[in-house]
Amino acid sequence: MSLDWDDSYDFDMSPIETTESSTQTSPISEEEELLLKEHIQFHSEMKDFLERALLKGQNEGVLALRVFIKNKPKKPKTSLNRLFLEDNSPQNDETESSTHEYLKTKLTQESLPIFSSLSLSDSESWNTVSEKIKNTNQRCQRGSGVCLSGHIQLGHLLEAGAKLYRDEKLLGRAEGTFDEWIRKNVQMSSRHARKLRAVARVIQPFPRLHNLALSLTEVYQRLPSIRRVLEIQEYKEFWSLAS
Question: Tens digit of pLDDT for each residue in 184-198?
């Protein structure tokens, strides 16, 4: 019997040709760390799935197994090979100046009013922030072509919520993980939540970046380049302006 497993998620560990510069020790980026965690979670879910598939086949037979394996875990969209072994994305050739100029061409004055009043204070409680997360996510889902500022606000709320949830657990008022709470109460994958949080951490302090006419996915892919732009004082001041 052939179950036709898709093993394209495997990471090719064959020898890699390196240059002197590429062998220098440097920390992985936040985006690379997030991707590694996604793959760790995927392989953990796949291990559990295969163990249950084995029991299903042993106890109920091949027909039940064939139905069961149709719902196997979905692998991350970005492969480890693509991120760590390939270096051919368009933004890799961009300088800080060219990235800055590109972002300027994407500036728009349009924004969604529903997000303009969202703010957080240090005294916000978990109950308050959790409701804001739910409401903001619902607004994002209802909106067609939601602007980047909405995603940033949601990511900012998720970032604050993660910290408050940890406090709630320490006080014995919450169980499980924040990812589990998100999946149950917001119907959002932990992968998407991490993407929103990563974007918000970089973009939130810079009001002008909120008005970029770019998709969340493109901004997420460009985070390393955007971070380098914001390390230059002149560009940092430009994007710090409210309009």
Answer: 999 888 889 999 999
- Give the mean model confidence (pLDDT) for residues 61-66: 88
Residue 154, both tokens: 């949601």
Task: Please say whether the beta carbons of 208 and 107 come within 8 A.
Answer: yes
Which residue, among 202, 183, 205, has the nearest Cα to 192 in the 3D structure?
183
Among 108, 97, 96, 87, which Cα is nearest to 32's? 87
Write the DSSP assignment of 143-173 as a string of letters.
STT--HHHHHHHHHHHHHHHHHHHHHHHTTS
> How far apart are alpha carbons 69 and 81 in whole angstroms?
26
What are 101-111's pLDDT values in tens digits?
999 999 986 54
Cβ-based neighbours of 114, under 8 Å, separated by 6 or more: 139, 143, 150
Q: Is 47 exposed, middle or buried (0-12, 13-18, 19+ CB in 10 A)?
A: exposed
Query: How much is the pTM?
Result: 0.61
